[in-house]
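Weekly structure sync - notes
Attendees: PM, LS, DV (DV joined late)
Agenda: review two folding runs queued last week.

Item 1: First target. Sequence and structure tokens pasted below for the record.
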Amino acid sequence: MSNDDLATLDPAAPAQRDHEPHPAPSPWRRRIVVVGLLLAALNLRPAVTSLGPLLKEVRDDLGMSGTIAGLLTSMPAACFAVFGITAPRLARRFGPGAVVCTGLVAIATGLALRPLAGGTVAFLCASALGLAGIAVSNILMPVIVKGWFPDRVGSMTGLYSMGLSLGTASAAAATVPMTDALGGSWRAGLGVWAVLAGVAMVPWLFLARDRTHRRTERAAAPEPASDQSASGAAGARITRSPTAWAMAVFFGLQSTAAYITMGWMPQIFRDAGVSASTSGVLLAVIMAMGVPLAFVLPRVAARLRNQGVLAVVLGVCGLIGYTGLWLAPAGGAWVWAVLLGVANCAFPLALTMISMRARTSAGVVRLSAFAQSTGYLLSIPGPLLVGALYQHSGGWGAPLALMAGLMVPQIVTGLLAGRDRTLEDEI
């Protein structure tokens, strides 16, 4: 942790307040929030990336077609869109910390039940439960960061994003070796990740019961309809904001790329002749690039008035990576993995821009809910279409062309979302 991050734990550090009053949390509470953010972040992707390296085994055992497997890889986006939209109302009623804690319970339960599934339907239902927990936590992470660390949004978003990338990469790299160590069954290899979610509950159980913590978080949550005046009207008019739509589409396109990568990249490498374990490591490399970059990128973005240039750089890396996969998937596998890992850092950039495109915590939660829920809804067809193209064409040429083509509108909407303006100015 850097000196800037340690400064966020210092009670003497200057705090930039929103318009609503915030109680001053003690240093030890803020330390617990940091630990809780990191542990929660570690659990927001293993449910997805642990499946990719074992997708072939799961499909063979449960009798899934390529199209159904595409549906499975689209489920994260679908669940994030459906369940994520409920997060603001739940946060206002129970507090973001309590909702995140409940989300972690759902993640642990879903991951524990998934290996017990005897068929495709049960497997999909258990996956949906875990993904619902991830959905509400995804929406509320920027809110918690804004509410507890308003003067260190870039640093804390980077720290949280780094933890998310670490959890993503660890699940991708370790799932196959753990599966082998536990007897070779995909059920054991997937189920073991429920333990990590159980550990992550501990700080959130404490924070959810802490009254000061709940008061701090409630100040960051959106007002109920009966209390809204101008802010309520602003929430109703968010669809009139060009910036909100640009954020939503940018978020949706980067989510499409991320979930295609997490769901199908190991299969792309395996079909090119790469072993299952090495394919998992290559996926881990893609995700591991986010560990250092997801920590640095939000800090750089927070210092820029316009973050569009960063969106362009990440998109170009994605275009080169997909082109390389089409030309030489096995020969240049490690290079393409690194480039796609850089492109995958559009996620922490999007989170940072969400925090910067609104002036208040209430504005952030409205923008976060709209951008993420709408974005995830837009991203649902991507992985499903890749699965259908793969099954009907019998190769990866058409799916890779689709992936590369989607980088172009991602760059354009990133330029629009990165402009120096706020939601409140437009609605």
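Item 2: Second target, run right after the first with the same settings.
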Amino acid sequence: MRAIWKGAIAFGLVNVPVKVYSATEDHDISLHQVHNADGGRIRYQRRCEVCSEVVDYSDIEKAYEDDGRTVILTKEELKAIPAENSHEIEVVQFVPSDQLDPIMFEKSYYLEPDSKSPKAYMLLRRALEDTERVAVVQFALRDKTRLGALRIRDDVLMLQALLWADEVREAAFPALDTSIRISAQEREMSAALVESMASDFEPEQFTDDYQAQLRQLIEAKLEKGDALDTEETFGAEAEGGNGEVIDLMEALKRSLDKKRGGGAAKQESSEDESDEEEPAQPAKRGSGSRSASGRATSSRSRTSTAKKADGDSDAETTKSGTSGTRSRSAASKSGAAAKPSTASKTSTASKTSTASKTGTASKTGTASKSGAAAKSTTKTASTAKTARKGA
């Protein structure tokens, strides 16, 4: 950075020599004007309207016109103004920072110590820190006497030029004088919208979209020349508002729905993932139920009653074979088929427990019933055989 001014801060009888640097800069892309027919550069000339001659800058003076009279002020006359020759930043008072209206803030400058011993600079900075106040100062810079605020930013004294009170316009709008009723619901919804958009201000998060897109346009034009297609470069043009006046409550609702939509969608997605159905566990089989029927009675619920288990066993028994041999063969197969993964982990047919883990099935359950049914079936088969022989 290059210093634009040198002077001293007058802090009572203490002088603090400083150099002044511009604290801000313009990042806009510089463009110039050309003739659209041939691309020729447009130049502005300082031409006198009396003699039509082009006037050199050194021959130009300033003037003031009032009621048809023109007063020409030479450079020497302007330099004779006492304030113009002052290189002093005079501290006039210390005020709380919240008493400075931001609308008065103008240009900002950094102040660098301009002496081999910056002790006075550090003392003034420490005084502002300890008192938590801002120094109101007066100074002259670039042909103008200015009002300013001296405060601290990143351990550096910063001079912020302020507008004079008569340079701030009064806001007088008749529309604001009319009586407007705002309902409690509208205030509540507007407050909710504010809360949904509340955050800490971080300037780095924001960018100048126009300058970025202007740079994109320049690069595309350099690459493609007159064959540039702006729609291809920037995409389809965004639809602007049609100026339609909608209900205020409806606008607030839509705004809230739009802000809450992203968060609600994420929450629903996480809930859907957590609520996915767990795979069903395979039903456990009782070891003794297959001794007479050859098929295991599946226990689908740990709360099944013994009555239901008996009914299922009887139903399976009616499907069993017609001979005792088949019944015994089925019993032996049942014993062989019983695995440690069954409900009771027992291979004997006498311990029948379709729902042994619920404690509702009897160990003398279905096997005995199945055996009786098998004997009855064998007797019936023998009787039928004898009858056929007699016939």
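Discussion on item 2: The longest strand covers residues 14-22.
Action: LS to circulate a short write-up before next sync.
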